[in-house]
Amino acid sequence: MADEQLLDKIRSLSDLELATLLCLVAREHCLIGTLPDYVDELAEELCLVASKTFNLTPAIINCHSHATLDEFATGLLVPQPARGGPPSPSHTRSASPYHLRHEPSSTTGGPSSSGGSYFPSPAPPSRPGAFSPRIGPAAIVPSSPSTTTHQPAQQPQIANFILAKNLHLAPRAVQIQALELLRTRRIFTRTSVQTAPKQFLFIAIIGAPSPTQARVTPHLNDFFYLSHWHDVEKDGLDHLDAELSRPDDNISVASSDSIIKRSSSGLGPLPDHEPAPQPHMTEDDISLLSQLTTLACVDVDVLRYQMNVVSHLRIHRAVVGGVTPQATRCLGNLCKSLAALHGLGFVTASLVGLAVRKVYGHRIVIVGEGGMMERERSVQWGSEGEAVGAVMGGWG
């Protein structure tokens, strides 16, 4: 069971922070929906959640109907800071095996000891330009990297926290590429293969009129661990409101005409005189919750109740699809994670009911969506589709 200090941290989290924490504990990904007018603000709020609460590096990808695979792959990467300064004194090994070991060292100014050589040191040449019997011209000596004072910037890497705005508007090829990234935790670019970091979270932000319409392509939709609907007018944006209330606020609001934009909040390196802020939820806290999730017990009666709920959804006359084996696996894991977050070592029936709403909210397809009313049982037996639609009005 988690200690009281960790439980106090969990109780102080907002709904967006709880959804992020559940995904980090399970090492899964999620889908968050909101009204289309608040997609940009929600993305900025999640950036602040990533940098301030979990100390992760966020990146925003603004998807649209003409997005390309190159744009998607580029939006995942964030630049790494250059490592400047003098080299470490331990880096004295030559860059080339052809470096003459009897030559004076560039760091010590004297000859290197013969004990460090794999082969006996040959006799020095008698004149400039003479050839050594083993390794060629004595005058040609590669320069050692120990004389370099600054190293070039590292290659860009995949960010820890990816926010894909309006992913449902992206072409099918881009969404399939996103699915491959989530499955294999790597992506192929034109020049290299980029691997996702250890802590990696991909959140699809969907702007939709209602929670049941916040979806992406079927296979990618089924791969998301859970879904959450955030009502900005009702729930608010805590971090963004706090930042905007400051007079020296430097938060950049995402513009709708940009293709790909990364958040500037929490991404830049801090000055040397300013200490790094302590994250609200540390990596040790997340690791502890992951261990408690694996140790949570499920009684046979609770497991039977969970399977009864799944069976009821699968055979319900209003449900066309979405109750998949992947969803059943996610339901079991989420129930255990919720038990750990509540400070319990076992799963209760109420936690199962809470997990069902989060797991199946974006998966279940209701009869009548997408012109599938003819697949309803009463319609197949001769009932009119309009009558069945009137009876099922408001479901889902």
UniProtKB/TrEMBL annotation:
Biased composition (Polar residues): 143-153
InterPro entries documented for this protein: Nucleic_acid_metab_PIN/TRAM (IPR052041)
Biased composition range(s): Low complexity: 105-120
Domain of life, per lineage: Eukaryota
Chain positions covered by the region annotation Disordered: 78-153
PANTHER family linked: AAA FAMILY ATPASE, C2H2-TYPE DOMAIN-CONTAINING PROTEIN
Name by which UniProt lists this protein: Magnesium chelatase
Organism: Podospora comata
